Amino acid sequence: MSTNFESSYHFCQLAHPLLKASGNGSIVFISSVAGLTHIDSGSIYAPTKAAINQLTKNLACEWAKDNIRTNCVAPWYIRTSLVEHLLEKKEFMEKVISRTPLERVGEPEEVSSMVAYLCLPAASYITGQIVSVDGGFTVNGFNR
């Protein structure tokens, strides 16, 4: 069984020569906050996302000599067709919002904007980072 991690790694290996030849390559993985903190996503999903986060860091160090930057975006709930059926449930949506300091779910363009930024020359000194696009979810402590 091929995992998201394995596919990502193999794709990077194939892309490496082209990224190196460009003189200024950038890889941006999409992970999940499930790779950073516990959420009710199951014992298979979360470790594969954590593996992508670690791959991001390892490749950032290994490929820096080739001027290839590697970063990762880790979203929380983003309003997409993948989670639409969950967000339609009032109780579930309230639970998500109660754990999110910005008190809403994210929009797809909020993730794509971060991905685009990480590919731009303006981000040329950013590598090995896992950027949470999560409305503050991963930094939210215990609230009464």
UniProtKB/TrEMBL annotation:
Annotated coiled-coil segments of the chain: none
One Pfam family in the UniProt entry: adh_short_C2
Highest taxon of the lineage: Eukaryota
Keyword Oxidoreductase: yes
Keywords: NADP, Oxidoreductase
GO molecular function, one term: oxidoreductase activity
SUPFAM superfamilies given in the database record: NAD(P)-binding Rossmann-fold domains
Family in the record: Belongs to the short-chain dehydrogenases/reductases (SDR) family. SDR65C subfamily.
PANTHER family the record matches: NADP-DEPENDENT MANNITOL DEHYDROGENASE, TROPINONE REDUCTASE
Name assigned to this protein: Tropinone reductase
